[in-house]
Inverse folding.
């Protein structure tokens, strides 16, 4: 296995601890059905030729899906994300990720199951926006 340089690894994982990386590996083995369904659409560079990673550690967080090239996180939220406390946590988490230059898109489990075409269109549209902003 090729070892990333410490600087590159820090930029790639934004300083995630070994514990966070271990937890991310566990989550990759235990993805929800909705995450698996979306992953089938994002893996192997199927989305605009970009590499997405699943359960990617960033600082203290683990992102459901992450494209480093355009710094886009895609989150699939279950019912727990509808509670006031979880909504506040998610807003704070998004703020922190934005501070790293990461854009966050959120979809519900229902969105993924029942409106996959719309979900993929929204992801594609956001990628195009981010890549255009990168060029300017």
């Amino acid at each position: 296995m090729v070892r990333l340089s410490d600087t590159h690894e820090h930029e790639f994982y934004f300083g995630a601890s070994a514990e966070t990386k271990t937890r991310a590996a566990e989550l990759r083995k235990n993805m929800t059905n909705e995450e698996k369904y979306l992953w089938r659409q994002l893996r192997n560079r199927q989305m605009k030729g970009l590499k997405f990673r699943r359960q990617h550690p960033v600082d203290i967080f683990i992102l459901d899906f992450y494209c480093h090239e355009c710094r886009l996180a895609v989150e699939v939220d279950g019912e727990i994300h509808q509670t006031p406390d979880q909504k506040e946590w998610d807003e704070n988490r998004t703020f922190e990720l934005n501070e790293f230059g990461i854009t966050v898109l959120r979809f519900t489990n229902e969105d993924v199951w029942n409106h996959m075409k719309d979900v993929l269109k929204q992801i594609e549209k956001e990628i195009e926006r981010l890549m255009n902003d990168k060029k300017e």
Summary: The chain has a mean pLDDT of 90. Helices lie at 6-13, 18-29, 33-42, 84-99, 109-114, 116-135.
